[in-house]
Amino acid sequence: MVALSGGHFAVDFASGTVPALIPFFTTKFDLGYALAAVVLLAATLSSSIVQPLFGLWSDRRGALWLIPGGVALAAVGVGLAAVSPVYALVVPLVFLGGLGVAAFHPEGAKFASYASGRNLASGMSYFNVGGNSGYAFGAYATGLLVLRIGLVGALLAVVPVLLASFALGRVLPALRALEPPPALSALGGEDDRRAMAVLGLVISLRSVAWFTLLAFVPLWMHSQGHSKGDANRLLFLMLIAGAVGTLVLGPVADRVGLRRTLVVTQGLLGPLVLVFVYVGGLAGTAALMLVGVCVVGTFGVTMVLSQLYLPQHVGVASGLSVGLAMGIGGVAAVALGAVADAVDLRAALTACAVAPMVGVAVSLLLPAPRAGARRLAVEPVAP
To answer: Is residue 317 within 8 Å of 112, Cβ to Cβ?
Structure first.
């Protein structure tokens, strides 16, 4: 699990550089809000839309080499995008880096579940805390380096990510020895595709708010008179709070139930976004950090639920939970960027708070996983 969580840290470190770079790309290429959001959309679509395809490949043939290979591709794509001389090259290179992120996640998540044993939510949380903290530190470190030495700093930031891919290649024999845990192997039966569709809608509605915030929190802070350094620090606080939330909410979900945890956190998102936009100050900062806890902290919960809904296609389930459904958030960020260009950024951020409010009603429709997984989703798990 340590190697998998470390790999997750590395690949999402590369991914986390993208939102940190948006304010600098906006200045360098004189971009409007919509074109700025296209950069995040490129990363989101490539890292999301194809994830289920990598998951299907993983389920049918096995593809452990995607774990180190995905990390390497993410580093190369994002690093080269940072030093691209023209905006027209930034978007395809970010897209390429996103493909590396997409390649890593289904296979990495599948073997993380194999290494989790009985407590799937807790185990998946330990896997996800690597990715969540990597995303946070990627955004923060990249912002600092770019502020000091220019966009070449982002290229330097991903060099350790490339080195991590070689280290991951050396642990593949140990990963091959892992087997599915009883909680998944005991299920049998057919996949519950209807339940997965409902879960996908919940994730999508949540992602509208999340990806809009990723794209526009730095720009919002800059529009309020704060420096790019201040904006970068606030983005880091939101992301690192999410990483801490992962460690907290995984064990909570194992004890009080996966669905119950998801419904409560979903219900908090809309009001918290509104506090950030309309109250601001320390209260706004605290609200934004709690948004990170509610969204990022439940990544492991939604991933485990997806695997329990699709026990025969664990790789595809992982790809759907962190991939395809989340791609909608990137599309929404571009659409709300157009709103920001036409009206203002406050209107776009207000609009993004509505989607998770709708998601609360949808999350109440989530059924319990079938057969042997039922107790994992609705009942406490004994220590």
So the answer is: no
- % the chain with pLDDT above 70: 84
> For position 290, what pLDDT does the model report?
95
DSSP string, 147-209: HHH-THHHHHHTHHHHHHHHHHHTTHHHHHT----HHHHTT-S---HHHHHHHHHHHHHHHHH
Model confidence band, residue 383 (pLDDT cutoffs 50, 70, 90):
very low
Q: What are the residues whose beta carbons fall under 8 Å from the beta carbon of 246, sequence distance 6 or more? A: 125, 128, 129, 132, 296, 297, 299, 300
What DSSP designation does 372 have?
G
Cα 69 to chain centroid, rounded: 19
Q: Which region holds residue 86: left if phi is over 0, alpha if psi is between -120 and 50, else beta?
A: beta
Residue 287 in tokens: 């609200």
One-letter amino acid at 84 equals S
Distance CA 216, CA 250 (A): 28
Q: Tokens 């990963």 sit at which residue?
A: 175
**What does the alpha-carbon distance between residue 246 and residue 251 come to, in Å, rounded to a whole number?**
9
- What the chain holds in terms of domains, given with CATH numbers, is 2-377 (1.20.1250.20)
Tokens 């809009």 correspond to 212
CA distances to 151, 169, 179, 302, 373 from 258, rounded to whole Å, are: 41, 33, 23, 8, 11
With 80 as the cut, is the pLDDT of residue 377 above it? no
d(CA 166, CA 43): 23
